[in-house]
Amino acid sequence: MKQIKSILLLVHDQQEALHFYTEKLGFEVHTDASFGEGNRWVTVNVPNNKDLEVILALANTDDSKVKVGNQVDSENAIMGFYTDDIEANIANFKAKGVVLASELIDEPYGKFVFFKDLYGNKFYLHQDKA
Fold first, then answer.
1. 3-state secondary structure of 116
2. What is the CATH number of domain 72-130?
3. How far apart are alpha carbons 112 and 91 in whole angstroms?
4. Interstrand relation of 122-128 and 79-82 (parallel, antiparallel or unpaired)
5. Residue range 40-54, pLDDT digits in tens
6. Where in the chain is the domain with CATH 3.10.180.10?
7. What is the dihedral of CA 96, 128, 112, 76, to 10 degrees?
8. What is the pLDDT of residues 86-117, one digit of tens each?
9. Type and span of the H or E element at 58
10. What CATH architecture does domain 1-68 belong to?
11. Residue ranges of the chain that CATH labels 3.30.720.110
12. In terms of pTM, does the model score above 0.85?
């Protein structure tokens, strides 16, 4: 194995999730294609990082529907992202209505903040100390 290709997030509505991830978080659409009978393959990526796709998978069973926003326990973030300007990202999130799950946390190793997506999945944004 060489690297991680994708991570899957269960969503209730792929179009709604696609809008949130692209318009509010600034992701890019990687793939948006129909397949099979009425199925849709939707992936997004962080700008300039097409190697890691976030799959926005439609929860279409009772088992998967209860896991939307609940794929990890409430104490942990499902994934994290690096940034070079965390304060600018926080201001942008606030302006776009992204829910912050913490204040800016400043630690000896860097700064970070937790935020949530439209379904309550928790993520973190991290900036290394200079």
1. strand
2. 3.30.720.110
3. 14
4. parallel
5. 999 999 998 999 999
6. 1-68
7. 110
8. 999 999 999 999 999 999 999 999 999 999 99
9. strand 53-58
10. Roll (3.10)
11. 72-130
12. yes
